[in-house]
Write a structure and sequence with these properties.
The protein is α/β, with parallel strands linked by helices. The protein has ten helices and eight strands. It starts with a helix and ends with a helix.
Length: about 325
Amino acid sequence: MTIDFATAELLEQMAEGGGKPLHENSVEEARTLAAGLAEMNGPAPPMVRIDEHSLAVPGGAVPLRVLVPLERTAGVIVYYHGGGWVVGSIDESDTVARKLAERTSCAVVLVDYRLAPEHRYPVAVDDSYAALEWVGEHLGEISGPGAPLFVAGDSAGGNLAAVMALRARDRGGPPIGAQILIYPVTDADFERPSYTDPGNQLLLTREAMVWFWDHYAPDAAQRTEADASPLRAADLAGLPPAVVMTAEHDVLRDEGEAYAERLREAGVPVNFMRHEGQTHGFFTMLMLPGSERGFQQVVKAVRATIHERSREATRAAP
């Protein structure tokens, strides 16, 4: 299937701008470009409450933004933004997160983990897990006792969300109701068919992913660690149910789908969908029709988890 019409138009407009490929940019230029794309998402839904926190971590601090869409929320989603661990911020993810909060009736916690190359792997992972632990400790204050906790993220943020599920399992961390992995990075293998397909060199290219990994984890040996490439984890059994979405025309498609399959093989329930006619980034580009279809997949899965949790609580009540 070819790229859908709305995406094709957007790609054509961007090409007419005459910008150079991402991997030919400096880090600062890439960050400016990413910020410009985020501005295209338009106004953000209002929230009942927005709380800003600064979480102290070794060597610095991690800003957290808690978006509360209504007085009594149904759960909490810890959201890790994308951007190849090099670009992106909670400000740039704010509109997407507010929409997610509004549509799911969940509080959303945005995590401003420190970026590479100033802070290379595993800093982003450690920051992200510290944030998850903090949310676990304050879950009752954010949403209410017994509220389900979700981890979610897109692209590199999907990588971090997957790693958070692994760490929480292995370290006795906060119980996670589901992991929501939106076209996630799960491996550092640039030779998969989706990477080498010329038709997939669109918003995210093979060269751009090499550029991101070189900034994030330049040591090739580190890239094989499960905290960097969760597809390389020895055992995926016992992880929380997963929502996995991929885009048909995305260099990350194959590794995302390989992760979904490994989860299934390990006995983990998986809600998987390949979004036809879409390319990388479609979920966070709210102006595209494909974004709405992606949101529908996530919202339905979150609501189903909340409903099941409510049923379990009712059955357990005396």
